[in-house]
Amino acid sequence: MITRFFFLCFFILIAIYSVGIFLPETGFDALWYHLPIIKNIAIIGHPTYIPDLYQSLQPMLGEILLAPLYKVAGVAGAKLGTFLFSLCIPLLVYQIAKKYLNKFPSLLVALVVFSFHTVAWQSASVYVDSIRTVFELYVLLCILEKKYIRVGVFLGLALLTKSVALLFFPSFIVFSYFKLRLKKTAVICGIALLLFLPSQIWGYTVSGQVPLLAIFSQTSKDLIGANYIGWFLRQSLQFVLTPILLSFHRESYTTPVFVIAVPFLIAAAYKNFKAETWYITASLWTWQLILPVSVRYDEAGIVVLLILSTWAVWNFPQGGKVFRCLFVVVAFLGISANIVLRLGVVYRAMSYLTGKETEMQYVDRFRDGVNTGPIDQWYKEKPPQLPGAVL
After folding, report:
1. pLDDT, tens digit, for every residue of 220-237?
2. Contact 252, 246 (CB under 8 A)
3. 384 Cβ partners below 8 Å, 6+ apart?
4. pTM of the predicted structure, to 2 decimals
5. Is residue 327 within 8 Å of residue 257, measured between CB atoms?
6. What does the alpha-carbon distance between residue 287 and residue 277 come to, in Å, rounded to a whole number?
């Protein structure tokens, strides 16, 4: 009965998320560079460097995977690809959670993660972060199952999907070191870097630039001339307030259970989960260094934090049943709130879906100043000119 209830909840979320496949793309990064790169690959048949888009110097595995679907069905095809990858997220979360929890809380954790605001909007938007998340979650699962060759391969695939994954590379290596020890961790590093380095060599060959430097450019600009002590204190405070950010922050909102669950975890974390504590600390601290703060950069770390927080509540010795009930109630309140938000998105789209609104009328509703450039570039002008691309 309980399992059927969870499957019903998953089906409701899947049905709601799938509506986004049929809507025009309005995501800033999707219109700015993901779609132009995907279109370029679909037309030419392989990745190329587009001078107008420095992001085309970065590894493009995500765009390569979506290009065939774009070629067949356009933007809706690319959205279908990200949607299918998003369906893998709760499956992997459940398998990881089962290493720590029994069936009910594992299903609950998977449902909570699948209801995340970030997972929801990325499920039908042409971003590659969900693809990278799937690879990283599988890395965590393989570390727990001691399949170290697969760890190296899929960690390399995560790096090839988005270079920002390199910033989180040390946190996975730390986790691997505690779980698999030094020799196997060295093999993992070797495999992952051997997969990643050719993309950097290619980027330098076609452009004369070091592609990797691009992912540090914005952070460097923010730090130049900054008050380093003030910056460090601000980031440290943000790190301490992570449970509140994850519960209430507009961009980073996930679920309110973090506010009540993390205190339980702090009391039990290092004693019971030394490896996981080091991984979460390294991963979340790295996340706080990324501007702007966005859950999509560190979904794998947040998933582990949620799983262990759930374990801490489920294994609390005194008054545990009361706290477990509170946890479940708050979790479902958060899930319900996210469902209502997504239903609001569907309601806003009904005019377009029923033919009462044209594509451009729908898209124009999402203009907010920031989005104007990418919208004009993709919908009203031609995407970045491709003839000048370096083959």
Report:
1. 555 555 566 776 777 777
2. yes
3. 36, 50, 52, 53, 377
4. 0.92
5. yes
6. 15
